[in-house]
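User: Second chain of the day. Same drill as before.
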Amino acid sequence: MKPGAYLEITMTIDPANRPAAAKVYQDYRGPFLEDIEGALTKELLVREQDVQVLHGFDTVEHAQAYLQSELFRRDVSAGLKPLWSEEPQLKIYSVA
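Assistant: Same format as last time:
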């Protein structure tokens, strides 16, 4: 199934902290794909200026619901927050 919506989280993370951020990504990729309703894909994108995680969902509603989930709030955000240089940007897109 192809995603009908994407959640893009863009984070400014110092290069020295990127291995720790990648570990958080790896630790929670499986639970995200297995346990979050509507989750289809999750990709880590690294650029010189920032790090993005692109989550694919079946619907916009499931993308929005993930942001309120225990996995996101208690585990993922808590693991990444000490690594942020500034607050992340969150965007949800629907596929046209």
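Helices lie at 18-35, 60-66, 70-80.

User: Great, on to the next one.
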